[in-house]
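Side project, low priority. Logging it here so it doesn't get lost.
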Amino acid sequence: MIFNQNTIYGQLIVFLHTYKAILCLLAILTLFASSVKAQSDAGSVTVNIIFRPVQTITVSPEQKVIDLSYNTVDDHQDGVSVRVDNHLTVFSTGGFLVSVEATSDHFTRLGGSETIPVSDVVIRPTGGSDGSDSGSSGSGTVFSDAILSSSPAPLITSDKGGRDLKYDITYDNSVAGSAQHYINRYESSDGAATVYTSNITYTITTP
């Protein structure tokens, strides 16, 4: 249909076309603004690094039995001492304390009731032969000799943690042994060894 823009009807048609164009433009602008807003949104995340105490101590599986054997005259004269390399392995997040204790105050003869004080044995720690913790100045580690007893005694104290820390342990029976305390401890008549035994436990805690 042909219309004249100068007539009222023509002006109305022009107005309607203009109005539709404005509406379309507003719709486009609204969509564009929504798109821009969606693209500029942000979300925050809190990331925590959490540390909890982790401590383990293990005795080398091949060194679960320690024999202090009196086999010769020199053994009874000088006593017996056994050093076990890399006997203990420690893992600790942060400082730690290793202590040692016996299950009772005495070694007891197998098959009998006779006893020997566990205090006859001194437990002496040193840095492992692998050098993981030498206890040198500045290392933060202190070694203490412990006279064995049924109460926990401090052995290794460190203000720093570490992994795969190795420690040598010496089981020293030289003082009591050299004093001839054991001259009459052999009690078998068939040549079999006379054995006195006790169990000891190493424990790791936070100092």
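Brief comment: The first strand starts at residue 55 and ends at 59.
Revisit when time allows.
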